[in-house]
């Protein structure tokens, strides 16, 4: 941790008035003078009842102590001490942030500790974790306090007993009840302790085991270990406030109290620990003694010493990112202003642990149940499991099924963040999204096992050291660890992590400062490096919005709220086509973008900032959600096109998103039907849905699992314009009753090395799609819809779409799809223009064995023979004879996962003077393909129209045609 060395030099600054507090008044004690007349002449005890060490410790020239000094100079110690007590009872210019005398309170637990410590309860002194069942141990032996008693047998019990942890609760009990029992009880115990434990003299090793020291000093050593003395001093700084109005708090007691406090402060200062954390605690006690008791002769010295020592281990730079004027940080600011950075950070920790605002829609602490996978990811990330960090979709096959890769360094003593086992660009990026950290946090919260919190601290702390933020102005577009999209993913999760861990005993004030500083750094980095457009910009704006809403106490919170919501308000229209499709053209990122918009609005609503979004913000999402509803197959799977990765979208996740959409648009009963799987709402009636701007088209017979559905893609942009696109214009998928007979090949890889880049190109190639190519080359992309229409008559009907793409220079591919009688599809492909070469009609079929997927070479097609009776017969007739070429295809439903499948091409040779070559294909769902017969006759063609006739199952259908 970076250390900031701070020194406080202005002592007067320490005792500045922060706020006023009332005190109870108390009259001087009077007594009968022996005459029996009740005279008010005081009986003044002699000097022997006062501990003269108090006067040696006091600065009698301190403002307000004139009466004390006058009595002392006239050798009237008792009256001097009484004047000093009256001074403290009336003092208002030194405020103790720990004590509220205006509205004193005590918790039920503290009340128990106060009561247990009374003699009537056998001096059961609260001593941390050392308990006799459900109550503290008794330290009463033979009618007196036995300070040497060690009930648990634990050495630390002897030490911590001398921290007097029950005394402040007794002070609170007195102040809330004014019951003198608590004061007299405290006085009795405190004076007994003073009598039994004078400060040791001579050269003593206070860190050594007292049992190894001379017997005559052994017991005192248990009481004077500096860290335990520090806890006593901290308590004494509060005890005076609680007890000083009591009639039992006498001038005699005050003299002992202050003499002992001065002695203890000097003792700590002379024996600071070499351990940085321990020293900080000790120094803080010295600092507080100086600030709470500025009247002491060495108060300024204590402040200087305590401040320098306690702050040397504290990174005060966190205060630079905090808005100390924020309403919830009053105590933090108070401590900071007097230079008590340690207390300021303690108050900051208390603030986060108790705050009730900053409501995160991604976190529900009332119901935290990690999934089985999340539990695995939490454990794999531990040091003992070689830092196997879950990175989405990337697994070490050599280590087992779905086992993450290890990022343990070769030396075996740490983490190597440069390990790149697959060479996949996306793996390297996603490693730095820290996707295992939220599962680990949820596992911690549900188990309360500190090993998970410690692992988070270790791993994230190591990441911070090894991955410093690049200098402003650096091009971070493709930076391995600081690419803005990955920073956004980290930031969104960081906004949740602190909530899960904030009560952890492992989360120290030092770690809290690290987390806050780097959260602030992440948010600033994104704001300085927003992507110009695309889905990246949307996620980045969500992260900035979250940081602003959930951490309003940071200085830049307001700017983040403005920036994040402003970018989202623009992107909700600018990043989408008029038909609702994301311009990136990928369903995966389309769905993710909607969620970014929705959850950003949600976090604003939960935190009273909804007005930052325009009234039209939600309505802008209506068409986006309509895209999703129409693109989902009836079994709640999705097309595998572009980078969507079908396997990443489960039915549960899709229905959760649909439910969110219905909540946005409660008037959409069709969305409700989809969200509830038909249990509620109204079933949609749309059969043909076109998204001509985005380039997606849907033709379905209905919305149930008994129906069939074709999705076609013919987009305006290709990979050169939109990175997530592929060379796949005019491709299609066909889903029938739960089986996708033509799944898209998918993406397999995001590239990054020569090998993985080649893989990405392979899966993106036009021949890997169900479209028409020329000489097996990739198509260009400028797709459009020419016409949508329907026809009916003679007892038959069909819906039709005419799509076109200028696939090559000199060759345009026109594809017309007819959905006939809601029974089968006919695809009419026309490749026209002046280009010459081999025209390829490509088909990539579903996975299956040779017996399940059967080539029908002579028929120009194939059929399936699945035992469940859900099958397909495909027949193609071309405008001229050609070649049927069997191929080995491939399909990937997720990154780095692939399977072989059958594929084939129907190839026709086209000359330059041939205006067109044509194919007509029938796709007939059937229970038994062997029982079906299909014949196809191509009709006339022109650039403005064409036709085809089919006979299926002995039924001759009217000509299927289009005219432009």
Written account of the structure:
The chain has 964 residues and is of the alpha+beta class. The chain has an 8-stranded antiparallel beta sheet with strand order 11-12-13-14-21-18-17-16, with no helix packed on it. A hairpin with a 2-residue loop joins strand 1 (131-132) and strand 2 (135-136). Helix 10 (226-243) runs parallel beside helix 12 (276-292), helix 20 packs parallel to helix 22 and helix 26 runs antiparallel to helix 27. It is elongated, with a radius of gyration of 40 Å. The chain starts with 10 loop residues before the first helix and ends with a strand.
Roughly how many Å apart are the termini?
72 Å
- Side by side, the strands of the main sheet go 11-12-13-14-21-18-17-16
Class derived from helix and strand content: alpha+beta
Shape, please? elongated
Compute the number of helices: 28
Strand content: 15-25%
**Largest β-sheet summary:** 8 strands, antiparallel
Poorly predicted regions are: 1-39
Q: What is the count of β-strands?
A: 25
Rg measurement, Å: 40 Å
Indicate the percent of residues in helices: 25-40%
Query: On the 0-100 scale, what is the average pLDDT?
Result: 92
Key features of this structure:
8-stranded antiparallel β-sheet, 964 residues, alpha+beta, 17% strand, disordered N terminus, elongated
């Amino acid at each position: 941790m970076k250390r900031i060395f701070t020194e406080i030099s202005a002592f007067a600054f320490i005792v500045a008035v922060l706020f006023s507090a009332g005190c109870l008044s108390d009259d001087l004690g009077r007594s009968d003078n022996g005459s029996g007349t009740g005279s008010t002449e005081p009986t003044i005890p002699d000097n022997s009842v006062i501990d003269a060490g108090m006067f040696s410790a006091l600065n009698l020239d301190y403002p307000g102590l004139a009466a004390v000094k006058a009595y002392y100079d006239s050798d009237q110690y008792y009256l001097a001490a009484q004047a000093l007590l009256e001074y403290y009872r009336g003092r208002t210019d030194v405020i103790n942030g720990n004590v509220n005398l205006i509205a004193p309170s005590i918790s039920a637990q503290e009340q128990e500790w106060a009561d247990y410590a009374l003699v009537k309860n056998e001096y059961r002194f609260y001593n941390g974790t050392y308990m006799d069942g459900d109550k503290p141990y008794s330290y009463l032996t033979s009618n007196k306090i036995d300070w040497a008693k060690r009930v648990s047998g634990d050495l630390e019990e002897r030490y911590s007993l001398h921290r007097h942890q029950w005394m402040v609760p007794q002070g609170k009990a007195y102040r809330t009840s004014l019951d003198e029992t608590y004061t007299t009880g405290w006085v009795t115990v405190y004076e007994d302790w003073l009598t039994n434990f004078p400060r040791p003299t001579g050269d003593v090793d206070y860190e050594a085991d007292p049992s190894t020291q001379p017997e005559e000093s052994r017991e005192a050593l248990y009481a004077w270990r500096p860290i335990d003395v520090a806890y006593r001093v901290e308590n004494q700084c509060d005890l005076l406030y609680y007890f000083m109005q009591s009639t039992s708090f006498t001038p005699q007691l005050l003299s002992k109290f202050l003499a002992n406090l001065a002695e203890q402060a000097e003792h700590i200062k002379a024996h600071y620990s070499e351990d940085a954390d321990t020293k900080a605690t000790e120094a803080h006690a010295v600092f507080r003694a100086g600030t709470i008791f500025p009247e002491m002769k060495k108060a300024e010295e204590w402040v200087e010493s305590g401040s320098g020592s306690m702050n040397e281990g504290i990174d005060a730079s966190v205060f630079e990112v905090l808005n100390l004027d924020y309403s919830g940080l009053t105590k933090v600011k108070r401590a900071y202003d007097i230079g008590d950075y340690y207390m300021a950070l303690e108050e900051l920790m208390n603030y986060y642990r108790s705050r009730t605002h900053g409501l995160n829609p991604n976190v529900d602490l009332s119901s935290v149940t990690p999934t089985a996978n999340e539990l695995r990811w939490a454990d794999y990330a531990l040091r003992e499991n070689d830092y196997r960090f879950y990175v989405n979709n990337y697994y070490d096959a050599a280590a087992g099924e779905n086992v993450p890769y290890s990022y343990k360094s070769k030396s075996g003593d740490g983490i190597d963040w440069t390990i790149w086992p697959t060479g996949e660009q996306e793996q390297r990026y996603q490693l730095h999204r820290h996707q295992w950290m939220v599962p680990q946090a949820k596992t911690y919260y549900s188990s309360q096992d500190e090993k998970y919190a410690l692992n988070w601290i270790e791993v994230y702390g190591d990441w911070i050291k090894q991955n410093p933020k690049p200098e402003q102005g650096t091009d971070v577009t493709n930076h391995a660890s600081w690419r803005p999209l990955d920073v956004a993913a980290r930031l969104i999760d960081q906004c949740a992590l602190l909530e899960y861990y904030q009560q952890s005993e492992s989360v120290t004030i030092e770690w809290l400062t690290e987390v806050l500083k780097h959260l602030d750094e992440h948010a600033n980095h994104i704001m300085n490096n927003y992507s110009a457009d695309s889905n990246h910009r949307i996620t980045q704006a969500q992260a900035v919005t979250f940081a602003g809403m959930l951490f309003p106490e940071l200085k830049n919170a307001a700017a983040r709220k403005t920036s994040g919501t402003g970018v989202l308000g623009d992107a909700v229209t600018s990043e989408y086509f008029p038909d609702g499709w994301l311009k990136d053209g990928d369903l995966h990122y389309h769905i993710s973008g909607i969620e970014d918009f929705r959850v950003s609005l949600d976090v604003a609503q939960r935190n009273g900032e909804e007005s930052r979004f325009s009234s039209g913000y939600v309505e802008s999402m209506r068409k986006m959600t309509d895209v999703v509803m129409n693109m989902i197959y009836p079994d709640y799977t999705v097309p595998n096109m572009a980078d969507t990765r079908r396997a990443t979208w489960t039915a549960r996740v899709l229905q959760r998103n649909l439910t969110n959409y219905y909540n946005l648009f409660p008037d959409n009963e069709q969305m409700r039907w989809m969200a509830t799987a038909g249990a509620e709402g109204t079933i949609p009636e749309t059969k043909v849905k076109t998204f001509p701007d985005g380039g997606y088209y849907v033709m379905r017979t209905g919305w149930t699992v008994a129906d069939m559905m074709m999705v076609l893609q013919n987009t305006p942009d290709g990979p050169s314009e939109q990175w997530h696109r592929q060379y796949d214009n005019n491709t299609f998928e066909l889903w029938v009753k739960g089986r996708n007979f033509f799944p898209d090949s998918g993406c397999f890889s995001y590239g990054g090395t020569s090998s993985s880049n080649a893989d990405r190109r392979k899966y993106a190639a036009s021949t890997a799609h169900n479209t028409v190519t020329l000489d097996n080359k990739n198509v260009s992309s400028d797709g459009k819809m020419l016409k949508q229409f329907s026809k009916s008559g003679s007892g038959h009907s069909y819906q039709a779409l005419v799509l076109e793409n200028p696939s090559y220079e000199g060759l345009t591919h026109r594809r017309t799809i007819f959905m006939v009688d809601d029974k089968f599809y006919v695809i009419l492909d026309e490749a026209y223009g002046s280009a010459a070469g081999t025209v390829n009609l490509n088909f990539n079929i579903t996975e299956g064995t040779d017996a399940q997927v059967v080539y029908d070479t002579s028929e120009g097609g194939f059929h399936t023979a699945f035992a469940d009776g859900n099958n397909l017969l495909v027949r193609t007739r071309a405008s001229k004879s050609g070649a049927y070429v069997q191929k080995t295809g491939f399909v990937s439903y997720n990154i780095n996962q692939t399977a072989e499948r059958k594929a084939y091409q129907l190839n026709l040779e086209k000359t330059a003077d041939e205006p067109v070559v044509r194919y007509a294909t029938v796709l007939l769902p059937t229970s038994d393909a062997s029982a079906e017969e299909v014949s196809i006759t191509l009709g006339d063609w022109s650039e403005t129209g064409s036709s085809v006739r089919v006979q299926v199952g002995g039924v001759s259908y009217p000509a299927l045609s289009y005219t432009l």
